[in-house]
User: Fold this.
Amino acid sequence: MLFDSIYSSTVTPSEFLIMAVAAILTGVVYSWLMSLRIRAHRRFFAVTSILPFAVATILTFVSGNIGRGIAFGGAFALIRFRSAPGTADEIAAVLIAAAAGVAFGAGYAAYGVLILLGLGLVFVFLSSVPLFRHSGMQEDKLLHITIPESLDYARAFEEPFAAYLKQNESVGVKTTGMGSMFRLSFRIRMKDPAKEKAFIDDLRTRNGNLEIAILPYAESQGAM
Assistant:
């Protein structure tokens, strides 16, 4: 049957080759689908292309061996803590690829193909249609303000924030310019998006005309 496992009690080279071809080819098609909606480096899509095969290979050779499973679990833990956090889109792409890899690793090649291509198409569709866009809601943005070290930033921007912002939340402070300046980061939501320039001009009068940046919040998570 199409959706039966291709593995016998002992995995043969031909069975492993069938799994490898199915996982890699479908992984490439899946990554191409995700690249239509996700803005990421080409290396990210190269990784997601081979991730189903990598997970499947691990499961194929770990199956039934507790010691190998613990060893691979420790290796994955090290990789996780040395990796930069990704966006929600990137995390979803990796999870889908890993889920398909589990299916491939168990020998269910047809299910693996179905998971990758099916969820890939669903993701592209949901990202394309305005189903979750509401006219009354504004997207949050990330505000970066560079200030001289002599400025007390705790209350320096209370007035413009109250005048132009519906809500704001401090998400980080770090030094820059060899410690001579600070860069403040805020998650903000404008009262009126049309007044963004006036908001920036007001901030410039308070930070000594140093750098100010307003970015889409969701796309800035990996660079914060």
